[in-house]
């Protein structure tokens, strides 16, 4: 959590961190500015010191919502630097020089945020060469933000629970909406007799998300039959909702305007489930409950991916472990951390696991995919581990495969 | 436009370009993949060659929508590399090595996309040191994508016009919604007698955007009175709509799921406009029409910012030119290019202008800001320059300051 940042800086030997970019699609900046909506901002934090925010003077008012000490580019004469150098890039380098001098920054400084990678490479190399007292660096894996994000403080948990509750309601509303349609020739139909489509369902969903003050920055998966057999296929808008076909409904909205995500998946069959789908569904649920039962603080996350692969392989399915690159069977990892980022640490892959800890919020999402047999199955809850190491699901939505319609 | 990329690569001496990241909030990747929705992808293009797309095997189906030649990480044994190196980072470096060898990439390679700046700095420095035949670089200003984006081809223009038409309809619907309310004690009220608020208006707007298949990834500005005096203040949800106060309504949605933006602003007063607001509004409109009249191909964009500053200063207002850092008067630049990015080249600032060209789509948005006098004014159309150099507004929404209510 955020209060860990100084410790994480010490562990890494960083004297200061710099976080920059737009705050809207840039989690470290959103995190450091407590969600203040900025087109462009810069947070500088010395080890042991409070973060300061430097922003466009036009965004002062928004910046003050961060609760941080706020300065603007104008306080450092950026316009004069641009005139003097005739270049935004050169002026930006000189701005950093002034900021580092003003705030007494020296030593190892690690950079975070969002930018163009080529631009960052050239810019930070120039800055590094320009500033003899400063060693510029960055983190390539398991950054201090990745680590800080893994556990949530009380205020974050409050926001996460609120988003979870609203996301569950939105999915329940969509199921009621679907059930409100008639069936004709094995297909759900609207009042005018035309088929109810994936596009119709997604449009209805969007109206519900608005009412619950949620947004879907990464879209939504509502994928029927073969499409559901590809974990990231979002579904085709023109597809009609037909009886007996698997529907993978993976909903992962966040607080409107930016904030915490919820991530939940249900697989449904309308009317009835074919035997092959039913059997695979039961196997997925078997893994789901086995893993939920086994979660324990201090245990390596990768161990649970092992449990899932063991179970699926014993049931005769290929897995990403037994058959690297497979697109049949169990093809992804068991879950992921979630927060301001939809996918964050801890990971549940074999290479990059980490011990589970109280305060973590993670997803559990076993699945089976057989696109050539025309189906995919995934069931996913978001869960958190409380101070005593107990696991609590934030996704109470029922897990029945078949939805009665008609 | 996209067909310029080879020429732009030659001008810059690039033998290949690499574009990476998530395609959703990453314009170069979205542009190169023709909008294929990818969580993570990599486009490599040799000078004179067709771009190839490398993606997660789980996203093959989505990747094929790009129309590009598609490969997956698995084709290059990424999983084995991860196992071998025990590190995603090291495996990723080796993956690049394999890709460059497989596709015959050597010489100067420029990187684009979205990533963490510190990570990019460390990663590209390592890759540069690892690959003796390759010189890695990036662009810090006026990149080839910035330049390619400035002009639009026929297909882009078709999409841009469609988004423009729907955005104008959404704003018109919101105005009708506002007019449908009663007035009590100089305040608009809902059926239950409680005040109509900025939050109510924004919620209604969101339902209209859904119906028009638009989204607002950068939010919307609906800022009343003093809030409108800060160009980027979005407005306070609890603020009631009151008569005689200026409302800056700046709407900049894009195609739902990613695509082209429209950007339009109107300033309104409900019922009546105070004299000071009326006078400033007329001055802003004077600049607006003078600039629209003057637009001509081959003219430097910065020249129009000069025209705007001249006119505002003659009328007695401070400007960003006469009073750097001012928050009163005309505090920003006249407009910007627009496309997949909300703000792109050409810029209209004094430092970074460029000649106007047929095919450009730009905004024109003079404004005056007096937060301490409780108002701000901005009027903005998005316009395009046709093949003959004629300017056409894509924002037909009327420009009347006062809306009759009650």
Question: If you had to describe this structure to a student in words, what would you say it looks like?
Answer:
Two copies of one chain form a homodimer. Chain A has eleven helices and 21 strands. Chain A is α+β, with helices and mostly antiparallel strands and 406 residues long. Chain A has a six-stranded mixed beta sheet with strand order 4-3-2-1-5-6. A four-stranded mixed beta sheet of chain A has the order 10-11-13-21, with helices on one face. A three-stranded antiparallel beta sheet of chain A has the order 16-19-20, with helices on one face. Chain A is elongated and about 75 Å long.
- The secondary-structure class of chain A comes to alpha+beta
Topology-level CATH name of the largest domain in chain A: Creatine Amidinohydrolase
**Spatial order of strands in the largest sheet of chain A:** 4-3-2-1-5-6
Assembly state: homodimer
Reported CATH architecture of the largest domain in chain A: Alpha-Beta Complex
- How much of the polypeptide of chain A forms β-strand, as a percent range? 15-25%
Largest sheet of chain A: 6 strands, mixed
What top-tier CATH class of the largest domain in chain A fits best?
A: Alpha Beta
Instruction: Report, as a whole number of angstroms, the end-to-end distance of chain A.
Output: 49 Å
Which residue ranges of chain A are poorly predicted, with pLDDT under 50 across at least 5 consecutive positions?
Answer: none
Largest inter-chain interface?
A: A-B, 71 and 71 residues
Number of domains of chain A: 2
Mean pLDDT of chain A: 95
Put simply, the count of helices of chain A is: 11
CA radius of gyration of chain A: 24 Å
Number of E strands of chain A: 21
Helical content of chain A stands at 25-40%
Shape of chain A: elongated
């Amino acid at each position: 959590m955020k209060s860990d940042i100084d410790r994480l800086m010490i562990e890494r030997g960083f004297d200061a961190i710099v976080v920059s970019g737009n705050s809207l699609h840039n989690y470290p900046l959103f995190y450091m500015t407590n969600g203040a909506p900025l087109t462009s901002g810069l947070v500088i934090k010395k080890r042991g010191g409070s973060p300061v925010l430097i922003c466009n003077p036009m965004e002062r008012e928004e910046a003050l919502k961060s609760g941080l000490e706020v300065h603007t580019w104008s306080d450092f004469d950026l316009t004069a630097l641009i005139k003097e150098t005739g270049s935004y890039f050169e002026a930006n380098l000189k701005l950093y020089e002034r900021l580092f001098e003003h705030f007494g920054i020296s030593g190892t400084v690690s950079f975070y945020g969002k930018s163009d990678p080529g631009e960052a490479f050239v810019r930070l190399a120039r800055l590094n060469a320009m500033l003899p007292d400063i060693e510029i660096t960055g983190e390539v894996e398991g950054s201090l933000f990745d680590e800080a994000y893994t556990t949530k403080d009380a205020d974050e948990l409050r926001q996460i629970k609120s988003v979870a509750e609203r996301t569950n309601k939105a999915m329940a509303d969509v199921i009621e909406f679907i059930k409100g349609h008639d069936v004709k020739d094995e297909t759900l139909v609207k009042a005018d007799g035309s088929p109810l489509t994936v596009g119709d369902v997604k449009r209805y969903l969007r109206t519900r998300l608005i009412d619950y003050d949620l947004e879907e920055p990464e879209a939504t998966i509502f994928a029927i039959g073969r499409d559901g057999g590809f974990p990231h296929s979002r579904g085709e808008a023109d597809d009609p909702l037909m009886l007996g076909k698997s529907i993978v409904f993976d909903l992962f909205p966040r607080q409107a305007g930016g904030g915490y995500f919820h991530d939940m998946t249900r697989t449904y069959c309308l009317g009835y489930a074919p035997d092959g789908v039913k059997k695979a569904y039961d196997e997925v649920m078997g893994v789901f409950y086995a893993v939920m039962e086994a979660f324990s603080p201090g245990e390596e996350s990768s161990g649970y991916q092992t449990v899932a692969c063991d179970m699926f392989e014993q049931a005769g399915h290929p897995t990403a472990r037994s058959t690297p690159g497979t697109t049949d069977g169990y093809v992804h990892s068991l879950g992921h951390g979630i927060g301001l980022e939809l996918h964050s640490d801890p990971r549940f892959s074999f290479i990059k696991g980490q011990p589970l800890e109280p305060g973590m919020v993670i997803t559990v999402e076993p699945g089976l995919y057989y696109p050539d047999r025309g189906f995919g199955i995934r069931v996913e809850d978001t869960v958190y581990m409380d101070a005593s190491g107990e696991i609590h699901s934030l996704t109470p939505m029922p897990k029945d495969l078949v939805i009665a319609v008609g």
